[in-house]
Design brief:
It is built from twelve helices and five strands. By secondary structure, it is mostly helical. The chain has one domain: Ribonucleotide Reductase, subunit A (Orthogonal Bundle). The strands form two sheets. It has a three-stranded antiparallel β-sheet with strand order 2-1-5. The chain is globular and about 65 Å long. The chain starts with 18 loop residues before the first helix and ends with a strand. It binds fe (ii) ion (2 copies).
Length: 474
């Protein structure tokens, strides 16, 4: 179904054909806009931003571009086209028709999953709301705002499901999604990573590389769901999500590239001298990477999880790219999971496959994360330096799962708590590192100019030149 832009809420779900639902969502819409004005990008509501807007759910040519003020963005409800006669692709219900309504017995589980996903979307907008003030270029500022408006749309995607399929509970949850706030002492966001402040652009690029990528894998798992409206919603969100990870990937690459230029010019890797020349030294980049990667790993949940097993068994949440697996029942066989053995060793446990579903998704995520790291390391090698960036072990600095609270070094070796205390400043950003990074965050808004700590992008947006005025500031 084509997207209807004549409606107050653009959609391809025939909202006009369900007046009750339409009215309920039109009632929620001004609350969303209030939230956007209050908690969205601070001070840029009057600026014209060159943004893409979804105009079709066809993967080719799905968006149009144009300059607009962010509060005028057409947030809407877009589901991927239905697959005729779609069947559940995994679990105990394998091969049965996908559900077009929520099965009663799965109602609370589905609601919780949708709320948890929905909560992350506005959370990231809140986390990033002050970043515009220290943007390294208009190009980057535009990318930040593109990510922000699309996270706002992802909130719409989840709120639609809550309103359309969960009755009064769903409407209450939709209200609560606007009432919790990132980092709020009384009403924080649900997941830890989404309460971490993002006060500088290196953190923003790490977040969009590592944390938005967690989003990609969660969406891929939910795109397999037996609950068809959820599957189709997530399918389309993935189309938008790709750009967010591109922003992270290229943002880190450009930061590294600038650092390498400075290292070459100085003829040294000495962090103090790199810093004095106004670039971010590689050890500091590694610490930020360690922080955001380990935090994002927690979002996949515990390595051994009976919840994950029951979601899979029930056909609610699958594995990313479920079609690539030969066995969709996962009733036989085990997976080996690394678990602590005593205080100082790494042991292993054989876990029934269904209980290891979180680990299957996390492993796929880690492989995906490696791709960017390899690319950044190629830049370093090409510049003639021996340094390497590395993903820390998945056992490092975990707060959830088998390794929660354990002292483990980045190579994955358990260490004494005292050693962790003594050495964590080598592995994670210190207050001083953060202060240094923040000291570089000077706002650059002249078209085509880029801050000194980051290299310019290779190309502009939508075939426009890098010098294009992507944001007209007001
Ligand atoms: Fe999102
Ligand atoms: Fe995203």
């Amino acid at each position: 179904m084509a997207i209807d832009y004549q409606e107050r809420i653009p959609n391809n779900v025939d909202l006009a054909g369900n007046k009750t639902l339409q009215r309920a969502l039109e009632h929620w819409q001004p609350r969303f806009l209030d939230w956007w004005r209050e908690m969205g990008p601070s001070d840029f509501m009057a600026s014209e931003v060159y943004l893409r807007t979804a105009t079709s759910v066809d993967a080719k040519g799905w968006a149009t571009y144009g300059a607009l003020r962010m509060p005028d963005y057409r947030w809407g409800i877009f589901l991927a086209d239905p697959v005729p006669d779609r069947r559940i692709g995994f679990g105990d219900e394998f091969g049965k028709p996908a559900w077009q309504q929520v099965p009663g017995e799965h109602r609370s589980t589905l609601r919780r999953l949708i709320v948890t996903q929905g909560d992350t979307e506005p959370a990231s907008v809140e986390q990033q709301r002050l970043l515009g003030h220290s943007c390294p270029s208009l190009y980057d500022l535009r990318n930040l705002f593109q990510v922000n408006v699309e996270e706002g749309r992802h909130l719409w995607a989840m709120v639609y499901l809550l309103h359309a399929y969960f009755g009064r509970d769903g409407r209450e949850e939709a209200e609560a999604l606007l009432a919790r706030h990132s980092g709020d002492a009384d009403k924080p966001r649900i997941l830890g990573t989404f309460n971490e402040p993002i006060g500088d652009w290196l953190s923003f690029f790490m977040f969009t590389y590592f944390t938005d990528r967690d989003g990609k894998f969660q969406l891929k798992s939910l795109a397999e769901s037996g609950f068809d409206p959820l599957a189709r919603t997530c399918q389309f969100m993935l189309t938008e999500e790709a750009h967010h990870m591109f922003v992270g990937d290229t943002g880190i690459a450009r930061t590294v590239r600038r650092t390498l230029e400075v290292m070459k010019a100085l003829g040294t890797e000495e962090p103090d001298r790199v810093r004095a020349a106004g670039a971010i030294d590689l050890p500091t980049i590694q610490k930020y990477l360690n922080f955001w990667f380990s935090s994002s790993l927690d979002l996949f949940g515990a390595e051994i999880s009976s919840n994950a097993a029951s979601y899979f068994g029930a056909g609610i949440k699958g594995r990313p790219d479920e079609a690539n697996y030969a066995d969709h029942l996962a009733l036989e066989g085990t997976q080996t999971i690394a678990v602590p053995a005593g205080e100082s060793d790494v042991g292993s446990e054989e876990v029934p496959l269904r209980n290891a579903m979180n680990e299957a998704t996390r492993s796929a995520y880690i492989r995906d994360c490696e791709i960017g790291v390899k690319r950044w390391n190629r830049l370093i090698a090409k510049a003639g330096f021996a340094a390497e960036l590395r993903l820390p072990s998945p056992r490092f600095r975990r707060s959830i799962g088998a390794w929660a609270g354990r002292s483990v070094d980045p190579s994955g070796t358990p260490i004494a708590a005292a050693e962790w205390q003594r050495r964590q400043a080598e592995w994670l950003p210190t207050a001083e590192d953060r202060a240094f990074v923040i000291s570089l965050m000077q706002r650059v808004v002249e078209p085509g100019k880029v801050a000194a700590w980051i290299a310019p992008p290779d190309r502009g947006i939508n075939n426009l030149p890098v010098e294009y005025e992507y944001v007209r500031l007001q």
